[in-house]
Amino acid sequence: MKNTELLIYMLKDIREVTLQGVNGLSKEQLFAEPLPGEFPIGAYLMHLGECDIGWYESLSGNKIPDELKNRCYYSAWFDVPAEDFNPPKSPIEPSEYIAAITEVREIVLDYISKMADEDLEITIKRKRSATVEVDIPKKWIIYHLIEHEAHTRGQMFMLIRMAGFKKKGENN
Asked: Domain total for the chain?
């Protein structure tokens, strides 16, 4: 198995488990603060799409269409400056969250599927601060997408439990 194939498998697997964990939550549960002052579970989901967008653009040098960025609430909801905070105004359907982050992930997977294993060693320059640039290997970026989703998924699942959210079909 090529390294790129393994990374694709890992990205698909981690997303499948993430989606299974939120399957059955209502649009109201995805939109509500699970605890006072916390981001909604839907914001965490869109943050996964947001990260895929940012790192895809760094990896590939290509831009994601604005329409898809808007559907993911890119730089509008999760951890943005107050002046840029522009989340949805009312609950959106669970399928809209899933469709947006799935579409972005498919773009990432398609890009990786066209890479040779040697391409994983290519480094890109990324600004760490206004004055510091670092070289980051593409393989680290892909690893980071996996690691970041695992971390974010853990946060989401803990918040779901702490909020007492029940999924459709679960006993009350």
From this structure: 1
Question: What number of other Cβ atoms are within 10 A of residue 49's Cβ?
Answer: 25
Q: Which residue carries 């994983």 as its tokens?
A: 120
| Angle value at C-alpha 64, between 76 and 7, nearest 5 degrees | 105
pLDDT above 70: residue 170: no
Phi-psi region of 77 (alpha: psi -120 to 50; beta: other; left: phi over 0): alpha
pTM for this model (two decimals):
0.93
The amino acid present at 46, given as its one-letter code, is: M
Would the CA dihedral through 87, 93, 96, 101 be positive or negative? positive
The pair of three-digit structure tokens given for residue 5, joined into one six-digit string: 């194939």
**pLDDT, tens digit (0-9, with 9 covering 90-100), for 132-155:** 999 999 999 999 999 999 999 999
Q: Does residue 168 lie within any of the structural domains? A: no
Query: What CATH number is given to the structural domain containing 134?
Result: 1.20.120.450
No. of H helices and E strands in the chain?
Answer: 6, 2
Q: Name the β-bridge partners of 127.
A: 133
Domain that holds residue 82: 3-163
Q: Give the span between the Cα atoms of 94 and 141, in whole angstroms.
A: 28
